[in-house]
Amino acid sequence: MIDSHEQVMKEQASFVNWVKSLSKMSNEQWFMPYSEGKWSSSEIISHLLSWDQFLISLNIMKIQEGDVLPSFPPIQEVNEKAAHYAREIVSKDELIHQFVETRKRYMNQLSTIGEEDYSRSFKIGTFEFTILSLIEDFQGHDHHHQKQIQLVLSQ
Question: Where is the DinB-like domain (predicted)?
Answer without folding.
Answer: 19-149
